[in-house]
Each structure stands twice: as structure tokens, then as C-alpha cells.
Write a structure and sequence with these properties.
CATH superfamily: Spore Coat Polysaccharide Biosynthesis Protein SpsA, Chain A
CATH architecture: Alpha-Beta Complex
Strand content: 15-25%
CATH topology: Spore Coat Polysaccharide Biosynthesis Protein SpsA, Chain A
Oligomer: single chain
Order of helices and strands: HEHEHHEHEEEHEEEHHHHEEHEHH
Number of strands: 12
């Protein structure tokens, strides 16, 4: 074995298989993160002891003086991630930069990085996270088509500008189908669940592509004109980060057992109901439990122990 091969082997030997990472921007999200970590430790099977990295703004860490102690009991690492001032006017900007920080840290530490939003619960061993060697990026499509580009229609002014600024060509834009309303749209990935090979640099590219978009005067105007454009600008930037880094045959769509949005139809008037966790691996609950149906526990189909676990943490009678 030559020196270069030996160095690569030594690096591989010290890298863990998989790391989970998440960003919490405020106290509510930090509380959700606690539930996420508890679910990994309880239900993730062979991944139950995987490292969990929690990113949060420095101000939140200073304000919550008990955070380190609480999360230490769950064998996690807390990391500070700051958002550039010029990005702070845009929704969800913090998690874009935190994802880049997490991938930077994971590049020499893990073979796979799972980036999840904090409103996620793991209910079963996520075996689909164990990507084939040929795959560098696993995803779920966006939940429903609030802001995507319909595949069978020309891109609108907003998306045309995004494709132009991020140098995305039509040949790169394979179709995906949204789970909640079955719309066929151009490649558009839910930013709340991403599995990447960190050495490829998808998440490290994401902040730069985001900055290209929020610094563009024309897109700024379109975001000012339509709040939906502004809400999802961070997610449109992810399209560029992915498609300019990996080819389509290096991507894979996770099954619909992942990123399953419970009671999504009640929150967003979706065509499909999401009221069963019988086979769900990871679920999302968004803001549902701020004001849930008082009888949600009785209406949610699934194993009694899992429903009870959710009720104990998220609320319910």
C-alpha cells in the first residue's frame, strides 16, 4: 500500500458511518430537537447510537443555560452556527448556513450525513439512509406544490430567473411528484430531509447559491411582491446546489415512508390524508401541535406504543 492509499485508509477507519444533524433557531425548535433525538435513541435500530449534531445560534445557546446539560444526557454535540446579516431577512436562512457548517464538519468524520428539520420524529430503523455506493444524494420531493415549477409548462418568471442565476439547464431538471397533491414538477427537494455524502459538497454549496439569489435585485423584487417566493427562496437554492454538484443517476428518492407529514391535510387542505403511521419511518408534524385536534390521538392510526410516545411529548388527551 502506497502512502496515499494508506492515508485514505486511515481516514476511512476514523470516519463514522452516519451522522444526524439538525438546526434549532428558537426555544420551540430546541424543544422539538429534544424529541427528535429521543426518537433516534429509542427507535432508530442500528442507528440509535449514531452521533447527533445540533446547530443553533449563539444567542440561543447563551439564553438557554440548561441546553448543554439536557442534551448531554442524550449523547449529542451542540454547535453554534451564525447567519450572515444580509441573509436574515429570508425565511429559514439559518438552516442553510447550519447545513453547510454540518457538512464541513462531517467531510472528514462521516460517510453519510442526514440533515433533518427539527419537527421530525424517527419511528423505525431508517434503512434507506444506508445509500448504495453509487448514490450521493437522497431526498423527498417538496410536500405540495406551493412554489414549484410545473414540469409540463414553461417556467414562470421567478423560476426562470433562478435557473438563469444558478446556471441550471433544462436537461438537468428531471421531474418529481409532490406527495400531497400529486403535481409533477421540475426537480425540487424538501429541505427538511436530505442524506448526502459530505465529501461531495452539496450542503457546502447551498449557502453560496442562496446568497446568489437573495443578492439578485430582480429576485428581491419578486420576493417583495409575493411572500411565497420569499418563504421558499432557500429551498430553490438547494436545487442549484444539488444539480450543479451531482448527476441525476447519483440521486435517489426515498420512499413515502420517509418525511411523512402527519395531519398535513388538516393544516394545508391537501388532497391526500396523512393520518396513519402504520409503516412510517420518519414523520414530520410542522406546527400542527400548536393547536391540535383534541381527538388527534384517537384519529391517528398506528401502533399504540408509538401513538402514546408521541402524545406524551407532543401533547394530547
Amino acid at each position: 500500500m502506497n502512502d496515499a492509499s494508506k492515508s485514505l485508509q486511515e481516514t476511512s477507519d476514523i470516519r463514522t458511518g452516519l451522522v444526524f444533524a439538525v438546526y434549532a433557531e428558537d426555544e420551540e425548535q430546541l424543544r422539538h430537537t429534544n424529541y427528535l433525538v429521543e426518537s433516534i435513541r429509542a427507535f432508530a435500530g442500528t442507528y440509535r447510537n449514531a452521533p447527533v449534531w445540533i446547530y443553533l445560534p449563539g444567542g440561543l445557546l447563551q439564553a438557554d443555560t440548561s441546553a448543554r446539560e439536557r442534551f448531554a444526557g442524550l449523547d449529542t454535540e451542540l454547535h453554534v452556527s451564525e447567519t450572515p446579516r444580509e441573509a436574515q431577512a429570508y425565511y429559514f436562512a439559518g438552516k442553510v448556513f447550519a447545513a453547510g457548517d454540518a457538512e464541513t464538519a462531517a467531510a472528514d468524520a462521516a460517510r453519510l450525513l442526514v440533515w433533518m428539520d427539527e419537527d421530525t420524529i424517527v419511528l423505525r430503523e431508517p434503512i434507506e439512509f444506508d445509500l448504495p455506493d453509487s448514490i450521493a444524494f437522497a431526498y423527498r420531493p417538496v410536500m405540495h406544490n406551493r412554489s414549484g415549477s410545473l414540469y409540463d409548462h414553461p417556467p414562470n418568471r421567478y423560476w426562470s430567473r433562478i435557473y438563469e442565476r444558478l446556471t441550471i439547464t433544462g436537461a438537468d431538471l428531471f421531474p418529481v411528484v409532490t406527495p400531497a397533491d400529486r403535481q409533477k414538477i421540475r426537480a425540487y427537494f424538501n429541505a427538511g430531509l436530505l442524506v448526502v455524502r459530505p465529501e461531495r459538497g452539496i450542503l457546502r454549496r447551498w449557502p453560496g447559491d442562496f446568497a446568489v439569489l437573495y443578492a439578485d435585485p430582480e429576485l428581491v423584487r419578486m420576493c417583495d411582491e409575493d411572500i411565497t417566493n420569499k418563504i421558499f427562496l432557500h429551498q430553490t437554492a438547494l436545487v442549484g446546489a444539488v444539480l450543479n454538484t451531482v448527476s441525476k443517476n447519483e440521486t435517489i428518492e426515498l420512499s413515502d415512508r420517509y418525511n411523512y407529514p402527519i395531519f398535513f391535510h388538516q393544516q394545508w387542505d391537501a388532497e391526500k390524508e396523512f393520518g396513519s403511521i402504520e409503516d412510517v419511518v420518519t414523520l414530520r408534524y410542522d406546527v400542527y401541535f400548536r393547536s391540535p385536534d383534541p381527538e388527534w390521538r384517537q384519529k391517528l392510526k398506528g401502533p399504540d406504543n408509538l401513538v402514546a410516545w408521541l402524545a406524551e411529548r407532543l401533547g394530547g388527551n
